[in-house]
């Protein structure tokens, strides 16, 4: 019998823990690859609690339970999770490990799934529990899976080759680069566990995770340039096998753990940020010498080659045309009062879907009206959906997966009234203009090679700070090439924050987002996001090598939310130059009313 209530599910889990002689268990949003987005089969936290956010975890004990989320989900978690069943706990003020250690007693056994947690998390949690005389225990088989009767099976979609004409480098070249690194470091092999790294390394794409074209698989790369791909056999087509060639041995994904155990005496490099604790345990139990180091694919993947850069520019042009058609449609329909958040998101997906190279969205669209726009990571569903009110701000953050590249764009627009009488408030205009000034400041930045994203973050915030306001998320994240919309290792964010990458020097070829914002809780929110490519900068008389940014995203910005008097001459020049380029890029792709709308929106400020 299927359990329909979260209370029944929590009770069933507790019964299973009791059967296993466990006093507690930790449930993250994760899969065996530490992915940001996971397949339905791995949505254990949502099944147990009802929480639909993309980041969070829970801890369950015999007599109490808690759910842990950060400030992005303070409102959402309370709407979706029953407070009678789970205490609401804020991260980073606490964590599942700290909470468990606080409530643990001597002799308790706290379970965790070593294939869903990082090894450093497991080591730190074990130390905290040990202080109370409790033990952290890896489970044999996830206890939630034992009570989740209708758990979906992992995707059976076939993996497909990703042509060299899009990738710019062959898989053989990439593997040779990894082999050279292994030989230089004196390692015998490395484990590539992150799904987007596997996809990049083998020039392979899949359909196993919503919004991210990856296939559930692992790769072991050896110092001689050969590799083993661990993947479900039904996912491998003859075309993929031919594409991979004889140097890549295809093995059943179910053999991966035993294969790790067979590397006795070998020196194996593993990245703690991208490989779960189960990988480390299997290697160590098998007698391998494990070296903790960075995944060698991550930086190489982040630095886009010329072919990937061209693909991104083409993808951005295709996407810009779709988003512009949507914004023109919205400007006509939303003031009538008949458009809600879900309908707007569906219409935007429809416009993107007209392009033959569009394969998927790159994430769930943030379609946010009124006070929902003040939630930076709002996710609309049937329960939260509201009409877009005439005379209000509407924020839409969305992206597409195209064969040539991955897009991510946010536009904040003023939705007028049928008679044209509604106007944004002076505060809205001021805040949007300050966000725009920060966006321009970052877009125009030049900086010496070796500069990291943490050093640039202030540029996007300085004009907001002057008004005594700020925003709580990072300013920029890396973006993949027909891969993950959030890609490391680079990031533009406050140094020392919760996200890795702020100290990573930026390299020419890295793509990042430029997305400052402002959020007035309960009222409205603003974000302006374009993607930017890191490029060499030419500065007369410069000493050493310098870098700057090329803007990749081309869609008009809403001039109704801009106070020209707050802009400098240089900022006005940027605005006019940007919109001239928007017109140049998109005009050949639009016609009729869409083209007329574009021309009007791109007129000089």
TrEMBL record:
It comes from the Bacteria. Transmembrane segments: none annotated. Keywords: Aminopeptidase, Hydrolase, Metal-binding, Protease. Coiled coil: none annotated. The keyword Hydrolase applies. The keyword Oxidoreductase does not apply. Belongs to the peptidase M24B family. This is Aminopeptidase P family protein. It comes from Qipengyuania spongiae.
């Amino acid at each position: 019998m299927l359990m329909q209530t979260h209370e029944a599910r929590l009770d069933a889990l507790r019964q299973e823990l009791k059967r296993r002689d466990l006093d507690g268990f930790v449930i993250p949003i994760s899969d065996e690859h530490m992915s940001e987005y996971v397949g339905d089969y791995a949505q254990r936290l949502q099944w147990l609690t009802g929480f639909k956010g993309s980041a969070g975890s829970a801890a369950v004990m015999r007599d109490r339970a808690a759910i842990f989320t950060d400030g992005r989900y303070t409102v959402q978690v309370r709407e979706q999770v029953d407070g009678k069943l789970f205490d609401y706990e804020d991260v980073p003020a606490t964590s599942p490990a700290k909470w468990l250690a606080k409530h643990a007693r001597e002799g308790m056994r706290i379970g965790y799934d070593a294939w869903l947690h990082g090894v450093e998390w497991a080591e730190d949690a074990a130390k905290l529990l040990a202080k109370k005389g409790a033990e952290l225990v890896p489970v044999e088989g996830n206890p939630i899976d034992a009570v989740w009767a209708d758990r979906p099976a992992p995707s059976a979609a076939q993996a497909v080759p990703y042509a060299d004409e899009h990738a710019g480098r062959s898989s053989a070249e990439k593997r040779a680069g990894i082999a050279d690194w292994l030989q230089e470091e004196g390692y015998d092999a490395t484990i590539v566990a992150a799904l987007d790294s596997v996809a990049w390394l083998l020039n392979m794409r899949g359909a196993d995770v919503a919004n991210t074209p990856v296939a559930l698989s692992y790769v072991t790369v050896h110092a001689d340039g050969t590799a083993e791909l661990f993947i479900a056999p039904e996912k491998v087509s003859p075309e993929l096998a031919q594409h991979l060639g004889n140097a890549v041995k295809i093995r059943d994904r179910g053999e991966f753990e035993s294969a790790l155990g067979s590397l006795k005496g070998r020196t194996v490099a593993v990245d703690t940020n991208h490989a779960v604790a189960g990988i480390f345990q299997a290697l160590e139990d098998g007698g391998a010498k494990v070296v903790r180091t960075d995944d060698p694919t991550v930086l190489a993947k982040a630095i886009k080659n010329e072919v990937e850069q061209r693909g991104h520019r083409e993808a951005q042009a295709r996407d810009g045309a779709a988003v512009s058609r949507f914004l023109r449609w919205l400007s006509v329909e939303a003031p009538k009062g008949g458009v809600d958040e879900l309908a707007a998101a569906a219409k935007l997906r429809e416009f993107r879907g007209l392009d033959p190279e569009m394969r998927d969205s790159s994430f769930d669209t943030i379609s946010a009206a009124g006070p929902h726009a003040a939630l930076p990571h709002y996710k609309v569903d049937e329960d939260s959906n509201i009409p877009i009110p005439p005379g209000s701000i509407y924020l839409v953050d969305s992206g597409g997966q195209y064969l040539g590249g991955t897009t991510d764009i946010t536009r904040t627009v003023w939705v007028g009234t049928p008679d044209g009488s509604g106007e944004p408030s002076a505060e809205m205009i001021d805040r949007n203009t300050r966000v725009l000034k920060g966006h321009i400041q970052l877009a125009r930045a030049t900086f010496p090679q070796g500069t990291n994203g943490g050093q640039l973050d202030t540029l996007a915030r300085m004009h907001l700070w002057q008004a005594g306001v700020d925003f709580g998320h990072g300013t920029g994240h890396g973006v993949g090439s027909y891969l993950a919309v959030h890609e490391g290792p680079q990031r533009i964010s406050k140094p020392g924050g919760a996200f890795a990458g702020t100290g990573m020097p930026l390299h020419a070829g890295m793509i990042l987002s430029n997305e400052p914002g402002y959020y007035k809780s309960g009222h409205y929110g603003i974000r302006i996001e374009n993607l930017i490519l890191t490029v060499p900068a030419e500065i007369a008389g410069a000493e050493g090598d310098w870098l700057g940014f090329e803007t990749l995203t081309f869609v008009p910005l809403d001039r109704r939310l801009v106070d020209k008097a707050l802009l400098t001459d240089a900022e006005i020049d940027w605005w006019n130059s940007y919109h001239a380029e928007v017109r140049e890029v998109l005009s050949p792709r639009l016609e009729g009313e869409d083209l007329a709308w574009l021309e009007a929106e791109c007129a000089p400020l």
